[in-house]
Amino acid sequence: MLKNYLLIAYKVLMRRKFFTFISLFGISFTLMILVVATAFLDNSFTPQKPESKFDRALWMPRWRMRSPDGNSNWNSSGGFYTMDKYVRRIVKRTNGAVEEFAIFSNTSQVATFLSGEKIEFQLRRTEGAYWNIVDMEFVEGAPFTTKDDLDRNFVAVINEAMRNKFFKGEPALGKQITFDGQNYRIVGVVKNVPETRRVAFADVWTPISTDKQKVRKTTIVNNSDLMGEYECIVLARSKEDFEVIRDAVKQAVSEVEFPDPKSFNKMETMAHNYFSLAANQFFFDWENHYSQDQSPKLFSMILFCALFFMFLPTINLVNLNVSRMMERASEIGVRKSFGASGQTLIAQFLVENLVLTFIGGIIGLLLSVIVLKYLNESGLWAYSNFSLNWRVFIYGFLLMIVFGVLSGVYPAWRMSKLNPIFALKGATK
Amino acid sequence: MIGRNDCKSTFNLFEKALTITSMIQHLFKLVWNRRKENLLTAIQIFAAFLVLSLLLTQAVHYWNNYRQPLGFEYKNIWGVVIDTKTSQFVWNKENREKIEGLFREIKTFPEVKEVAGSMMLPFLNWNWQSGDSSIIGKFLNIERDFVTDDYARTMGLIVTQGEWFNETHNAVNYTPAVINERLAKAYFGDENPIGKRIFPRFPKGDEKSYTRNNEVMPLREERVVGVVSDYRKFGELSNPPYFAFRRSAPSDTLMSEPPRAIVIKVSETGMSGAFEEKLVKRLEQLAPDWSFKVGRLEKMRDKQLRDTILPLIAFGIVGGFLILMVALGLVGVVWQNVTRRTREIGLRRAIGSTAAVIYAQVLGELLIITTLSIVLGAIIFLQIPLLKLTEAIDWSWKMQFETYLYGLGLAVGFIYLIAILCALYPSKMATTVAPVEALRYE
Amino acid sequence: MLRLENVQKVYRTDTIETVALSRINLNVKEGEFVSIMGPSGSGKSTLLNLMGLLDEPTSGAIVLNGKAILSFKDGDLARLRNEEIGFIFQTFHLISDLNAIDNVEIPLLYRKMNAAERKKHCQAALERVGLASRMKHFPSQMSGGQQQRVAIARAIVGKPALLLADEPTGNLDSQMSQEILAILKELNQEGTTIVMVTHDPRMAQQTQRTIRIFDGRVVTETQHSGAVA
């Protein structure tokens, strides 16, 4: 039976090459775009090396201080002082729920000159504990330590791309690089980290204390010292501890003392993952920006977009299939006369459509591999590694089936309802 | 005679109109009778039309922005961002000496033509905004920046009214401001803006002070001294802003801050990497506790343009693909429609009638379906600006209503074009096969 | 075997009611070879469609093997058509994308039968109509007579009790027509009940009984004593 269906499907496809082309074009491009989008979302939002522990991490990238009347807001990354003095309190308060806590700066573009040539790179300053949260792969050496940071040792970890630029790919351990008027000794070289890994990404990492600005302060005089270019991340022992940690963070942040409480008197932050950060930036809710997780909203919106995007190609295919049905009226009539029931015909047509979708899907997958390769090579995102991993592949496969069934069911139903008498006549008159 | 001719031609016209109306009526009947099949086509065109409208509205929006002059130059200019490592940067003696020293030193390079300071560089998405509704009763978001007296010369700003900041403003008892023409028009209409107050905004001036660093500071009035043609610091594709410059000068410690960015106009040879290295080394030498980032404004412009355009290109590719797919699908459906009538076409041609009648019918049907879809699509599309649907999303979608109308108009034209092409191609193909093939077709 | 009781068929459009068949009573006995004649538009095709359970009567009953077919579901009707009835059409209606043996196989596809058995049955049916040598030919590679023989093979492959033929020789020349009729007659002798719609009196002559209909009514019934039996 199935063999017969497949045979018919093959014959039908070969008979009207133009229609097959139109259908395949629609299916393969639709699936290509969906698969590329899925690969992109997967790459952006699921924990991946070197951030594979991030399913139990709470990341606080954005901070806000508010005036007493709530009309004036300072919205940016946070101050080292705030995190060091207040947020760090949660480590002791949560009875071991926190496995690791680290403060690090966001990346900033730095340029330096090496024998007349300009080298630009992204610099991140971190605490020693940062290296226990990300699982970077070291090609040479090892990360700098908390002691390096506290002793203000001018050491740096660089990635392979920088080793190529500075040292033409030769071993870099112990060598010096100079930027911002300071010399740094290289203690480690890591594999390149994609820019899409927001916490792990950088070209060069140095201890926080090496900043020209004195970051570790014991007292502050301005409210603005509570803000700055720092982020922090908490690695929980397990996901179950998230609630405890969130509450502790809330408590710690509420204890922040302001040098000038008339201008600002309230500090806010929110523990994010990449998805919730994107969600809260996309659906910017002024009042609840630091209290409400907009992830469900973004999730439904992505789902809606995907469905809307699939809607048009589906309608297109359905319309094409329905209009082609007339061409096959005779076949349908014969099959009905010889005892095919509505269900059998639906099954036959669905098989045909699924075959078409599969062929289109395979073309689509191949196309997406090419597009992803192109995206990786385009350099739009530094060291990006978009790829068709098994997860994306399964998503793509599911999308394929959904699409095939969606676009096949209605025409098949119409086909099964076709009056055999009319069908037999329709072909002759 | 003439009258009769007139009469006849009028009658002909009338008759023609009548035949056209009855033809259209006939077509409507056909469309209605095949509503089940046509519904799918209609939905398809409807969705394609919505996508096309969105795309073209965006295109119109950005094209309109792109056409307007930038108001300043970016070629042969270096931009330097100073990280002073402090959040409060005021005109004290130390800062003043340091900044003035830097400027003096930069000017000694032979390649340098002009040097000026500002708070922020153009093309980077940093901004300082202030807005209020007290002056004209409508909220205007005003982009602001502190700049030095040399800024207009360095950046090639065009002063159209009044004068740019200069030494004479050291002695005045207000803070001088230069605004762009758009803001002048919005605030003061056809009145002469020179001498008008833009800050404090409160008409009665009941706020005489503000707090800074725990200190209560008196407020100085800010008055317009000049108007520049424009200053679109966010680049060619950005929405034209309302802009107001404030003078950054040590004589006004109350309202102004020292510059935290430097723009350097150089000769052609000054755009080399060698100059950049020389500059950076000198800057780091002069202020070892500060950090400097140096770049070409042209490059910053390219990057910003790229960042704006890339999502548009992605959107365009996806939308364009959807529309191409719908077009191909329509060709397929019409093709099927025509082949199904091939016998009829063959017969008609065999008995001497023209096939054109049937093609006209096929085209007419498709155009009617298209029209219905467009009407529905336009009603729904216009809800976006009417219900302000985009405001829930933090997007650069604040566009004028006319932009939506232009986009819609273009989309209508485009979709009709697609429909006609989609109907013509299969019809043409069918003409070449008929009638022998047509009669054989069974 | 097949009985029509007071069968009426009315086609309705928005404004017009067309009576295609009015109050037909008819009985086809097991093993009979019946022909139906009548001018075009007289309702003979409608009659055949009703007999073949492709259409439902507006009123009246169709009784097949003693069971009244009134409210069967789509699936049941499909099964009945598959097992009890074989169709032969004027324009053959072979599926052009399938070769002879694949075409013949169709009715068996809707039964639970394994491939080997199906193949055996199809070969037998094609041999039966004298096309053993053309099993792999496509419809376009065969003459009209051969195509119709494939169609007959398809109709008989499921061993139906009733064969319905709608002008099976209408598109064929007289020699081929005779060949086809000869096959039908043989099948009838082997016990298959056949109802054939035809225009050709000479064809009708060779059946056992001819029913003439006009304007949706049975006008005359003629027994042909000299025919097969």
Features:
heterotrimer; A: 429 residues; alpha+beta; 2 domains; seven-stranded mixed beta sheet; three-stranded antiparallel beta sheet; 13 strands; 17% strand; B: 442 residues; 12 helices; disordered N terminus
Strand content of chain B: 15-25%
Instruction: Enumerate the spans of chain C where pLDDT stays under 50 for 5 or more consecutive residues.
Output: none
N-to-C SSE string of chain B, H for helix and E for strand: HHEHEEEHEEHEEEEEEHEHHHHHH
Largest sheet of chain C: 6 strands, mixed
- End-to-end separation of chain B: 57 Å
Outline of chain B, from the CA principal axes?
Answer: elongated
Number of domains of chain B: 2
Helix count, DSSP H or I runs of 4 or more residues of chain B: 12
Looking across the biggest beta sheet of chain C, what order are the strands in?
6-7-8-3-9-10
Number of strands of chain C: 10
Encode the helix/strand succession of chain C as letters.
Answer: EEEHEEHEHHHEHEHEE
Oligomer designation: heterotrimer
Anisotropy-based shape of chain C: globular
Amino- and carboxy-terminal Cα gap of chain C: 17 Å
Helix vs. strand class of chain C: alpha/beta
Give the total of beta strands of chain B: 13
Mean pLDDT of chain B: 82
Major sheet characteristics of chain B: 7 strands, mixed
